[in-house]
């Protein structure tokens, strides 16, 4: 059978790329996409896809807001949600699963593996990258609950995009690699990095990396 997929991501270029990747896969048809929370909820309710590929970090409440909006509207008739995110942070994974997603994979996944993940969640499986599965199991068994984040004014001052850039910088990504990962220009990455340095009061990238590691960001 053919599984009908709806794509939700606030980056149009990324949505186009996923469409191209999935177009060559048997048994999968992308029937629509949206870049904002309200558009996503309305589109999913209208088209009733089998699977929703869902970005976690979006303006207006992110993927969790989409999950809740669709569930409120469709109840038990809601489609299956598979999170597709740049973030592999434990708190993002667990919050999304608790909101109702059936799986969580990162945007480094190949097109073939993504198609396989779509088929699996559509057929009732839960799909996670191995490390992310550990977060979920530990959280729901109570062995390693995610702690409430401590107040950190410098960290809290960062925008969502600046935090994404910070995480990738902490992992050793170059500006060009960050640009490719986030589908933005190198110049935009440089601007975000400059803002991060200013807001965190760090003098250079090495100091910023140490600052991030001390806060378990990365």
Automatic annotation (TrEMBL):
GO MF annotation terms: DNA binding
SMART domains according to UniProt: HTH_LUXR (SM00421), REC (SM00448)
Statement: the UniProt record of this protein carries the keyword DNA-binding: yes
Name recorded for this polypeptide: Putative two-component response regulator
One Pfam family, short name: Response_reg
Ranges where the Response regulatory domain occurs: 4-122
Residues where 4-aspartylphosphate is found: 55
């Amino acid at each position: 059978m053919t599984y009908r997929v709806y794509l939700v991501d606030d980056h149009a270029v990324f949505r186009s790329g996923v469409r191209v990747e999935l177009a060559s896969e048997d048994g999968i048809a992308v029937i629509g996409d949206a870049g904002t929370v309200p558009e996503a909820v309305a589109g999913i309710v209208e088209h009733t896809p089998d699977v929703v590929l869902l970005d976690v970090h979006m303006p207006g409440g992110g993927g969790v807001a989409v999950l809740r909006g669709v569930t409120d509207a469709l109840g038990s008739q809601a489609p299956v949600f598979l999170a597709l995110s740049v973030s592999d942070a434990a708190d993002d994974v667990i919050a999304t699963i608790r909101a109702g997603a059936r799986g969580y994979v990162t945007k480094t996944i190949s097109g073939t593996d993504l198609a396989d993940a779509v088929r699996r969640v559509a057929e009732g499986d839960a799909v996670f990258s191995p490390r992310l599965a550990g977060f979920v199991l530990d959280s729901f068994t109570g062995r390693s609950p995610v702690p409430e984040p401590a107040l950190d004014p410098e960290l809290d001052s960062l925008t969502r995009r600046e935090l994404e850039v910070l995480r990738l910088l902490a992992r050793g990504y170059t500006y060009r690699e960050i640009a490719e990962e986030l589908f933005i220009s190198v110049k935009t990455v440089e601007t975000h990095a400059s803002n991060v340095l200013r807001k965190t009061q760090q003098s250079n990238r090495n100091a910023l990396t140490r600052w991030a590691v001390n806060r378990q960001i990365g």
